[in-house]
Amino acid sequence: MVEPLDLGRAPPCALNLLHSKADETSVNSTRWMLLSLPLVLMSVSANSASPEAIKSLPRLLLKEKTQIQIDKQHRAKTRVQSAFLIQTPEGQAPKVRILVYDQNLVRMNSFRAWTAIGKERVSVTDKMLVKAQLNEEEGFSNLVSMEVTFPKMVVGAEIHWEYEIEEIEKPHLGYFSELVRLDQEYYSPGSVQVSIKSAVPLRWKVQDGSGTWKTTSGKNTLDLFLAKEFNQILNDEPNGVVSLQRLPTVLVSTGDKWQNVGQEVWVGLESRLKEPLTPFEQKIVKKAKSHKGVVNQVQVAMSEMNRQLRYMGEWRGRFSQFMPRSAQVISEGQYGDCKDYALIATRILRKLGMDASMASIYSDPEMIPDFYYSLPSKLFNHQIVHIRQGNKVFWMDPTHFESLHFIDPTLAGRMALVWGRKT
User: What is the pLDDT of residues 323-337, one digit of tens each?
Assistant: First the structure.
């Protein structure tokens, strides 16, 4: 069993040293915490978008239909049909990124696209379709984007695309999860439809105070229909958007409880953590032990680790989202990504006598609502370290370490999945 840890939102540059605000419950080897901290939302006009504001949008969504089938291994096959109307010269930029996916985990089964001008339909040819690495850095070469150069992109034209993608690996955490979120500037009634059918139990929660979504459900099925107009066009900010906390959102998951997810990941992490210390780690531990006090020892250990290791992203492995390389490989290569840094730091801190665990979190400048974790979800893109020393709790990002009393604002107050030890 793994244990998740739920972080509430902290103000920017929040102190990393937290005491009585944590509400903690232990379940075998997992902990679930909620830190209740202030949340500030943007004010949003409740008025409908004016016709002029709608016409000013470069591209207007006409249709987005999504069909998802989930098999018994919690893998999804997704078919998407989309159409946009080109409304302004700004919307005529021909190259459009359709989607980004991990080619280690997902297979593209089919794709087609075209431009419609009245009754004329001009197909996108293979030469107009580019499947490119999202990032040229070698460590991220598994992430690819599908980009299309549409022909005859003129005002009044419509661009259409259809594709089907399929997960080829069982999800790392053992379940399917999807956020259905309205994040364009404007949606007309009926423009969005989502249909989900699952061979395993399906769960969902809705964040929608205005009744924008119409939901119809059956046994392990869910159909969503956009019943009302929705817009994010702010009266005082023509290009503004509302807070994610206010977006009509549906969270769908085949996960049961956080305490029941990620068993294989936890076993793999504990195996890495229990490997014998490398000479590289032993030297750091020895140097840290020559100093007194937890704060001083951590400061020395992390400073020395960062001095000798170089940070480099590494997502090429099929299971590298959560699983670091071995300590031996990291030590010999003298570089690592966030998972590698968190592994080495946790191993060193445990050897110094601290109750340290690796933790998965979502790092981003934008606020991530607590609602996104009300069911088991997959919003994790970074690894940090959770430390419990007596009645004190510390959060530490080894890749961006300044002080044990400081956590970066892109992490502060976020939910985190803590991979703990059996107790």
Answer: 899 999 999 999 999
Over 305-330, what HEC string results? HHHHCEECCCCCCCCCCCCCCCHHHH
pLDDT at 112 over 50: yes
Quick one: tokens of 118?
Answer: 């009245």
Q: 330 with 273: CB under 8 angstroms?
A: no
More confident residue, 101 or 218: 218
Report residue 140: phi and psi, to 5°.
-115, 20
For 284, 337, 340, 373, the CA distances from 273, given in Å and listed in that order, are: 16, 16, 11, 27
Residue 243 has pLDDT above 60, yes or no: yes
- Residues 6 or more apart whose CB falls under 8 angstroms from that of 283 comprise 304
- Average pLDDT on 368-380 reads 90
Cβ contacts of residue 97 below 8 Å, gap of 6+? 145, 146, 147
Helix H or strand E segment including 270: helix 263-273
φ, ψ of residue 327 in degrees (nearest 5):
-60, -35
Q: What are phi and psi of 351, to 5 degrees?
A: -65, -25
Residue 318 has pLDDT above 90, yes or no: no
Of 230, 251, 225, 232, nearest to 66 by C-alpha is 225
164 vs 111: CA distance, rounded Å:
7
Helix, coil or strand: residue 53: helix
At residue 221, the pLDDT reads 98
Residue written as token pair 């840290």: 288
